[in-house]
Amino acid sequence: MFNIFFGILGLLGAAAAAKSQREAGKQAAIEGEEKKKASELNAYNMETDRILSKTEAMQRHNDRLELFRSNLSANIAAFSKMNRDPKLDRSVAAFLENQRLIATDDTRRSDFMGWAEESRRATEALVMKAEGRAAQRAGYAAERASRATAFSTMVSGLTSFVKVM
Predict the structure, then answer these.
(1) Which of 23, 71, 132, 154 is the most buried (most CB within 10 A)?
(2) DSSP assignment, residue 67?
(3) Cβ–Cβ under 8 Å, residues 136 and 35
(4) For residue range 79-96, what is the model confidence (pLDDT) as tens digits?
């Protein structure tokens, strides 16, 4: 009589353990999905930041060119007031050319920094997406493993029950 009672108790324990293993697997899958969604949201934010950064870099480029044009006009006016024609005076032409080279270098450097920042943000967004997919796959793998473990627990419980009977 006690053998039957303990056999049934063991079988119920195995069923409860199998159920909890399945629930843990389902929870792991849910957590994997949530991590994937969070990573996708972070990747979307990084992509938005990348576009904003690119726009800011273009604005810096345009601002620097506008400053150059403004300074060029002011310099030409100042030299004209001193009766120094930029087309005839080589030192004035050299000065203006040097200012053009400085502005070109500034914009080139700014453009490169903008490109580097844009590339960094794009890479981070790709990494975020990959991490999300990996978390999702890990959750699904944990769920599949929990099914196998739950099945094994039930088989073990049934085997013990049969031995007791």
Answers:
(1) 132
(2) H
(3) yes
(4) 999 999 888 889 999 999
